[in-house]
Amino acid sequence: MKILAIESSCDEFAAAVVEDGQRVLAEAVYSQIDLHKAFGGVVPEIAARSHVEVAIPVVEECLEQFRAASTALLSPSKLKPDFDVWDDIDTIAVTNRPGLSGSLLIGTLTARTLALLKNKPIYAVDHMEGHVYANWLNVDTDNQSFKRPQFPALALVVSGGHSQIMLFHSHSNYEIVGETQDDAAGEVFDKVAKILGLPYPGGPSIAKAAEHGNADKYQLPIPKCANPLDFSFSGLKTAVLRAVQAEVGVDHTFPSFELAARLNASSRDDFAASFQKTACLTLAKGMALAFAKYQPKSVLIAGGVAANTELRRLLALELSSVNDGKVSISQTNPIICPELKYCTDNAAMIGARAYFLSQYAKPDDPLAMEIGVN
Length: 374
Fold this sequence. Notes:
Elements: E1 2-7, E2 12-19, E3 23-31, H1 33-36, H2 44-72, E4 91-97, H3 101-118, E5 122-126, H4 127-133, E6 153-158, E7 163-170, E8 173-179, H5 185-196, H6 202-210, H7 234-248, H8 265-294, E9 298-302, H9 309-320, E10 335-336, H10 348-358
Parallel strand pairs: 1-4, 4-5, 6-9, 9-10
Antiparallel strand pairs: 1-2, 2-3, 6-7, 7-8
Helix pairs in contact: 2-3, 4-10, 5-6, 5-7, 5-8, 6-8, 7-8, 8-9
């Protein structure tokens, strides 16, 4: 089954053609990072307006890639002059929740219109489920070391909008066993980066600064929640702010946007490293508790923050210390991570999720499909 997938939940508009939930045949994406850098975060109105401009060009670019790949596999004698790439598209998938309402509207309207015009079934996909299914994408189909996730699978999904621990019993049955009670991890990376005077997006800029810093220089708190598998990051963000204010000799009334100018490069890097270690350790310790409780066959990470190498290192370290004699992280049961480019928002993950969704669910009505922002 070949699925044309569209993702537009935030500041990127992406399209991809995915075969059987695993192989990426074509993809195109337009990123808005340069549009939002000046604001230190995503401006919803700007994001939606940009999607309006690029939606059709991105889909056309993706289909042109797919057309080129398809015709290359056909001998000239079998290639018809009126070859229509849409004949090879079986269904359409689109992110309809959660996300920015304006951004979601542009993506869903594009997908719904194409489904009606081309008479194709359409599936609405949850963005967070999509992130998990990036772990089913085997870009290199000849890669013999590729580990397909097994159920039950425990997934840590960390992005700019959400931080969750999800337990998948099957493709059709999962539960959220832990989640942030306030800010998402990715959001806090962006906000701390702004305090430190580092560029947006915060994840990559903090990781780069942390390479030169001392992660043990500043002791920052790991909050505890009523549910041990839940997270809280707002207190960590405030702790960084107060620590930076103390470092430069000002009180809590001093404007946060003026702090960076008073920080020297060494202190900035130390704060970046200390914050990154604490944030990643918070996530890793929560996953270790869930790992011990549910004893999954697979452990997955997904979302933009999953690209962070410190998170991957600390997660492996924490999970390796959990062993009840039945399950452990090892070479034969590793932590499964998506290829780095599929950690951030992309359409291929939506196509992967839609394939497995289509195995047990009926297509959605393109005339009745709605968006959900939560």
